[in-house]
Structure formats: C-alpha cells, structure tokens
Amino acid sequence: MLAETICSAVSAAGLGIAAITAYRRRFLAAARIAAYSLVPVALVMTGAVEWAVGTAFSPVAWAGFGLLGLAWLLFITTRAAERRAGGTRKERRAGAEAARRDTVEPAASRPSLGGSAPAAEKPKAARPKASAADDDFSDIEAILKKHGI
C-alpha cells in the first residue's frame, strides 16, 4: 500500500513538472517528462510493484538471485580460463582446420632430380588458351585463395 502511494505521488509530481514545462512552451520536453512520470502509475496498475515488493522480502527469491550470481561467476571464470589457454576462438579454429587439412591432404614430396641440368632446363608445355568460363573461375579461385579457403 505504501509503495502504491509513493508511486502515485511521484507520478503526480512529474505531471506537475510537465505542466510547468509546457507552460514555458517547451512541448517536446514536457511530453517526455509526462511519459516518464506515467511509468510508476503504470507499474502499480500492472501489478509489477506488488510483485517486486513480494520478491524483495522472499528468501526463495534471494536464493534464486544468489544462484544466478553463481552461474554468472562460473561463466565469467570459464571464459577467462579459455582465453588464457590459447588465443581467440578464431585462432583455435584456424589451427584446428590447418591440422585437419594437413592430415587429410598431406603435401606430396617432390622427387629428387639429382641435380641434372637437362631436366631442369626443359621448357614447360604451353597451356592452351583459357576460355571465358575459366577466366571467371580464376577470379573466384583468386578470391578464395585470398581468404585462405
């Protein structure tokens, strides 16, 4: 009952201040003050104030808030430990992908040429002229290589 009376008094005072502000021809500010001053009465009418008062004096509610705090504390400490363990999530993911890529597609070793000069001097066969579709794919390949894909 006391909370409802206080909320009503705060709303009445706010509406009075809004009226004075409107009298001074500051209508936008007066409308904003009136909006803020109607909130406490609205909370009383919806029952939110009664719920808040009932929650504030309930031991079960405080135990629930304590558990929420504990959960938050555990979450924050595990995030801190995770960050200390090794960089950001993206860096760990990139490292895991690189390791997976190395195990799936190992780089083939080149056969040793034995240092023979004739094999090194062989001209490479000229590639045939690429069609327009191949040019499109080469652009796409360049973009993918740029992003490391």
Briefly, what is this?
This protein has 149 residues and is mainly α. The chain has seven helices and no strands.
Describe the structure.
By secondary structure, the chain is mainly α. The chain has seven helices and no strands. Helix 1 (2-23) packs antiparallel against helix 2 (27-46). The two termini are 66 Å apart.
Q: What shape does the CA trace take?
A: elongated
Can you write the helix and strand succession as a string? HHHHHHH
Alpha-carbon distance between the two ends? 66 Å
Helix content: over 70%
Structural class: mainly alpha
Low-confidence sequence ranges: none
Mean pLDDT: 80
Biggest beta sheet summary = none
Rounded radius of gyration (Å): 36 Å
Strand content: under 5%
Figure out the total of helices: 7
Say how many strands there are. Answer: 0
Write the layout of secondary structure elements.
Layout: H1 2-23, H2 27-46, H3 48-56, H4 59-86, H5 89-104, H6 117-120, H7 132-146
Helix pairs in contact: 1-2
Features:
mainly alpha; 149 residues
